[in-house]
Design a protein that fits this description.
223 residues, 1 helix, mainly beta
């Protein structure tokens, strides 16, 4: 918006109130039978400090409430066979980061530097039960979510997969995940359809935690 409305662009010293991550919603799990449970989540993000300034063609500034959709899904969880969820929520590549993003929801959030931090619409996901501290997850988008870059004859389902091993007793966390044809933000290249690979590792020794993440992303070329 207009530069003269931004105190930080004009004053050497100024005060600021920053809402990094204000959210509200519901999340739960309700038992249906001895083996089955219903799982659900619905969540919004809200700009709690000032809302959002918009500027029209005449230069008039209007402040509006900014409420954004976050994760929202319903599903069935089986203790024996795993969980199936439908809705809009984080890809399994994004979730594979675990807790290694130490600046999550702040200005240093890794979403500003690497690709793969996507929350996508119209998905069906499956999360296996944990076996020997290892879980496999798979997600696919339905075809009514159309990439703006794809030709009608080339429309494909975006998908996301991950395998995660977490041994809390040893302090070890390892994850390998990949997105295929996911249309989302990439920070460096803005919005595009991408294939993304992510390898994550974390090891805790006493009060010291060592974290590492390797990521590789490329644009999907429509031929």
């Amino acid at each position: 918006y207009k530069k003269d409305l931004d105190a930080s662009a004009n004053d050497e010293e100024y005060t600021r109130l920053q809402s990094n991550a204000s959210r509200f919603g519901l999340k739960g799990e309700d038992e249906l039978t001895a083996d089955l449970s219903a799982v659900y989540q619905i969540e919004w993000g809200v700009d709690a400090d000032q809302g959002l300034d918009t500027v029209d063609a005449s230069g008039k500034v209007t402040n509006i409430e900014k409420i954004t959709q976050r994760n929202r899904y319903v599903g069935i969880k089986s203790q024996q066979f795993g969980t199936v969820k439908i809705g809009k929520y984080d890809t399994y590549t994004k979730l594979a980061q675990g807790e290694i993003d130490l600046f999550n929801d702040f200005a240093g959030d890794m979403a500003f530097t690497i690709a793969g931090e996507n929350r996508i619409n119209n998905v069906i996901g499956y999360e296996s039960p944990k076996f020997m501290d290892t879980q496999i997850s798979l997600m696919t988008q339905t075809q009514d979510t159309v990439s703006t870059q794809a030709k009608p004859s080339k429309i494909k389902n975006g998908s996301s997969v991950s395998i995660v091993h977490q041994n809390e007793e040893m302090g070890l966390y390892v994850a390998l995940a990949s997105d295929f044809g996911i249309d989302g933000d990439t920070s460096l290249f803005r919005k595009r359809e991408s294939n993304t690979l992510r390898l994550v590792g974390s090891y805790k020794i006493a009060d010291l935690t060592l974290n590492a993440l390797y990521s590789m992303s490329s644009a999907v070329v429509d031929t």
